[in-house]
Design brief:
Layout (H helix, E strand, L loop, with lengths): L3 E6 L4 E4 L19 H9 L9 E5 L3 E5 L3 E9 L2 E3 L2 E3 L5 E3 L5 E3 L4 E9 L30 E3 L22 E7 L8 H9 L2 E3 L7 E5 L14 E2 L4 E3 L7 E3 L6 E2 L3 E5 L4 H5 L6 E6 L1
Length: 285
Amino acid sequence: MTAKLTTVRSGALTTVQDSGRRGHAHLGVPRSGALDAPAMRLANRLLGNDPDAAVLETTLTGCTLQPDRALTVVVGGAHCPVTVDGRPAAWGAPVRVPAGAVLNVGTATAGVRSYVAVRGGIAADPVLGSRSTDLLSGLGPQPLRDGDVVPVGTPARPVPPPVAAPWPGPPAELVLPVRLGPRVDWFTPAALRTLTSAAYHVSPHSNRIGLRTEGPPLERALTGELPSEGMVLGAVQVPPDGRPVIFLHDHPTTGGYPVIAVVAEPALAAAAQASVGTPVRFTLG
């Protein structure tokens, strides 16, 4: 029998995530997957898991878990207090959790999303080749609720020797390199100057679908309706209010608002950890 984790406290939003569902956009299925993929992979490597093994992704307030067997876990990503049965435990390094003990992943003190990796990986049933929760389409496991039980997989490799893991901190300023998008001609030259020079900030309305910004609106040159067209990860879409939205992993696969630019994918991990109010700067490159 495999081990199981009982969700004592699910927190604001805790989901199962892996590297996502690639190659299904033509079916209307987003990639989904961990927003901070480097954090997920590092936590898995510290346990000897496959780097893309499924983990739990928490949002701001963490979660509390109780295993029915002894497990080894790593909590990484956004920095937060970690305790086992009320006693302080390591963040960013392997921690042994005895059977029946209570693992508490606390509120993030820096960053937004923490990752709970378990030796053996989270063994939720895969859908279209991925165990990821997709908030937009509803595919994959539902977000965790108090009392939910999560299965754990069988470890495939021995735990590696302890190493010093380089965990990056959250951005003090989110710098997003962009390339011009397919509908840049729908905007005035002044709008492009505004995009690459104005001060924007992370909006509290951001989520796994998109990082919304607050700042000066971008002026449109064309005001007509745009038929829906394909959307990609990192697309900078401009809704009617003129404030840029950066599409993250649960984004829709089509959209009807013009895309002025596209953010390079490696920069999106930092976007996953940018808290509300973080300055945002777009750069052409």
